[in-house]
């Protein structure tokens, strides 16, 4: 029996000239795939400083963590870009930290801080 797709959405916004991917709902494999579609388009346009905002995200499952790790590697290693991640509670931060997302990505406590980190 197939696992039902959990509701999610990703909104692409722009703040201070930086793309912000706002993750809503349940971040799993399907959300990671959608985030990658958006990311590929941004990277193709030369936008390599990116913010992920997980404030409206309820849960990140294991395939979602793997997806975030792959997205981080693509931005930071493949494109020598910068990624700031905000909106993480302690559990989400700990899981992503254990998965190796940090220190490749920068942790920000707010979207404003994420912008400051990427504008340096």
From TrEMBL:
SUPFAM superfamilies: SpoIIaa-like. InterPro entries: STAS_dom, STAS_dom_sf. Residues 8-118 form the STAS domain. It comes from the Bacteria. This is STAS domain-containing protein. It comes from Candidatus Ozemobacter sibiricus.
């Amino acid at each position: 029996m197939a696992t039902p797709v959990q509701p999610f959405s990703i909104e692409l916004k722009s703040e201070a000239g930086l793309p912000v991917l706002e993750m809503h709902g349940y971040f799993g494999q399907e959300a990671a795939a959608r985030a990658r579609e958006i990311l590929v388009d941004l990277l193709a346009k030369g936008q390599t400083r990116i913010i992920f905002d997980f404030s409206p995200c309820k849960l990140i499952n294991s395939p979602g963590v793997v997806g975030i790790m792959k997205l981080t590697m693509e931005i930071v290693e493949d494109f020598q870009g910068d990624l700031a991640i905000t909106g993480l509670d302690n559990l989400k931060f700990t899981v992503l930290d254990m998965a190796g997302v940090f220190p490749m990505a920068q942790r920000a406590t707010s979207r404003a801080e994420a912008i400051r980190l990427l504008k340096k």
